User: Fold this.
Amino acid sequence: MLASVKNILEEAKANGYAVGAFNVFNMEEVQAVVRAAVKKHTPVIVQITEKTMNYAGDKVIYDVVKAVIDRESATIPIGFHLDHGYSFDTVVRAIEMGMNSVMIDASHKSLQENIQITRRVVELAHAKGVFVQAELGKAPRLGEMSADPDWDKIMTNPMEAQWLINETKADSLAVAIGNAHDFFRERPEPDWERLESIHKLLPDTPLIMHGASDWVNHKVVEAVKRGVVCFNVDTDLRIAFNTVLCQFTHDKCDIIDPRKVMTEAREAVQRVIEKKIDLFHETSKK
Assistant:
């Protein structure tokens, strides 16, 4: 069932585990996420980006996600979230589509500008009952900055994080502690002291980890101990999906029914999601 992201994150926080938020771009990936959640009997979050909205069409992708959730998950709560909304207009689009959870990523702007745009988003969103995730600090991507950045300059400043949340009333916060998007080389070890400081200053704010698709068990456990309640997963799903496509699209490919290819791609993505769910829930046993 389509559920409140706020409630999903609060449940995870109360029970000491993390939720997986999985990026999708088509029907097969939505089905993979929802079917994995149903199989594992656990809430998850389906999320899309502005690029996916442009690719599929706002209302089309919303209807696809909602239809799959409505028809395949009668009892398991599934959230639907806008990932990395880089502008106020993008967030407005998502809210007008019907989404009840959005991210405003103004982390590329100055702190004052970040506060201003995030506050504006929160005022609009909260008036409509929409949950808001903000971001402070940078989880770098390939091509955006030097391959060997000064991590102290780009990671989340704990005091600034407290200021951002207090000034904007955002509901959750994406943090940077040495994590990185896609194939950017991460900091050798996450800055656990920094994360702990953020959590102590914002004990009631769910913390979100981006760029952690490849994090292994001990990193996930340490992050959850320090307030992380949600891990975004995108790159690992793309790899699983594209690996299957590449296997079928070599020179000797004799498959003429694309449904066979897409079925195997969907199953490959679902297997990855199931493993991620197990990993994120393992923390509740520690």
